[in-house]
Amino acid sequence: MSKASAVAASRLQQRLDWRAMRSENSVLGSDFSADHFALLDLPRQQALNGAELDQKFRSLQALVHPDHHVQAGDAQRRLAMQWAIRVNEAYQVLKSPGSRAFYLLTLLGVDPQVENNTAMPVEFLMQQMELREEVMAARGAGDEAFLETAHETLQREITGCHQQLVALIDQQKDYKTAAELVRKLMFQEKLLHEINDALEAVDS
After folding, report:
1. Which runs of E-coded beta strand occur in the chain?
2. What's the rounded Cα separation, in Å, for the pair 107 and 90?
3. What CATH topology corresponds to 122-203?
4. For labelling alongside 167, which of 79, 108, 121, 204 has CA 20 to 30 A away?
């Protein structure tokens, strides 16, 4: 193939790739109105297959990633960038069971009130406070064994919450209890993050 033919073929492929992207945009909605589940062509439910989520994300990213449209016009590159950001945002929200539940509940018309409703059972709050104090003390003492045990225990509790959310949202449709569990989960995930930080500090 001559150099001129190769260039022509490359330009044709770019036009075809862009048309495919625009066709995909027409399905998704050029106003970016599709929710995260619809965007990634996934069922609107709490239980998701992680491998399927990853595959859907990679497929869309391959279509809209700006690196694939470097020779397009300015408007086309901007659109590609906007869609890449949009797809990544959807993926980041849905891959975490906690943020997925929060987002799904809002779609279902239920506000988990994570920011302005911190009402929790006294026993749960006391448990969190005591564990946080123990984590701080273990960090200061360099007690890696305690921190690792605390991490494993809390991670098991969080995993249990994730399983409960599937039952509450997808099966029982008990959105009020699910919202309460999401608020509880936020406390636990924050504490787990503090334990991770403590482990890194002890290891350094």
Report:
1. none
2. 13
3. Monooxygenase (1.20.1280)
4. 121
Domain locations in the chain as residue ranges: 3-95, 122-203
Cα distances from 23 to residues 20, 89, 157, in angstroms, run 5, 21, 44
94-112 exposure pattern, b = at least 16 Cβ within 10 A, e = fewer: beebbbbbbbbbeeeebeb
Q: Give yes or no for residue 8 having a pLDDT over 70.
A: no
Measure the CA–CA gap between 61 and 71, rounded to whole angstroms.
Answer: 17
- Residues with Cβ within 8 Å of residue 182, at least 6 apart in sequence: 98, 101, 102, 105, 112, 114, 165
Q: Can you tell me the distance from the alpha carbon of 180 to that of 141, in angstroms, rounded to the nearest whole number?
A: 35
CATH of domain 3-95: 1.10.287.110
Cα 160-165-170 angle, rounded to 5 deg: 140
Q: For the segment 86-131, what is each residue's pLDDT rounded down to a tens digit?
A: 889 999 999 999 999 999 999 999 998 877 766 788 899 899 999 9
